[in-house]
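Protein in question quoted in full.
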Amino acid sequence: MSDITGGLETSGIGLIKRAIELDRSKRYTESLICYQEGLQLLIQANKATGRSEAGKTALRNKMVEYMDRAEWIKSHIDKEKTTGRYHEQIFIEENSTGFSYESLVSRFLLEKCERVEIDDPYIRSHHQIVNFLKFAELLVKSQCGLRVIKLRTSADTTDHQQQQMKLVEIGSSLATHHVTLHTEFSSSLHDREIRLSNNWTIKIGRGLDYFKPSPRKLTIGAFDYDLRPCRQTTVDIFYKSLP
């Protein structure tokens, strides 16, 4: 077996193991992606030359098992979406890593999504506005057909003018990507919720501000949020079909 083939198989098995772990935790949307990506790698590995027929047959049998499970998960998700009852929960432990905005949301942006509404009362201080900018970058680069972002937040009572200026600057940047930002300030806003126009809703207990501050500017996790330790929170994901 070549190094390339061995690498494909190792990567594929790693993804399948992650899929099984997520499957057991009922994090089905994540699990399905891992099953699909892992199976693609294993199929490529099994097509490569240098593997015995017995080895190919053994791997093929395991792939059939994983395919069947992936099909069940897809069918389950589709069924729950049809009834408008799909719910998935992710518990983020204190100091855990691997929970960037991309890891939480990107799989829901594979479908067309022209509008995103964000309710978060804490997009006020500088680091919170930077969090919003990072989330907006994810939406733009997803190529989901985004046209509008609507942000509802509360006014920074210490320097509302500075808060407004920063959000206007983000809005101007978004406009160069053909995305319009609407900002609304509410003194009664409490709930945190992200609503996608493709009917997915993501509720993060702490809103976008669930990352711990980086202890230094030049430290791992300062820019890559998958490597940034998190504060404890719960993420609830719903699919709400329109009537």
Q: What stands out?
A: The two ends are 54 Å apart (CA to CA).
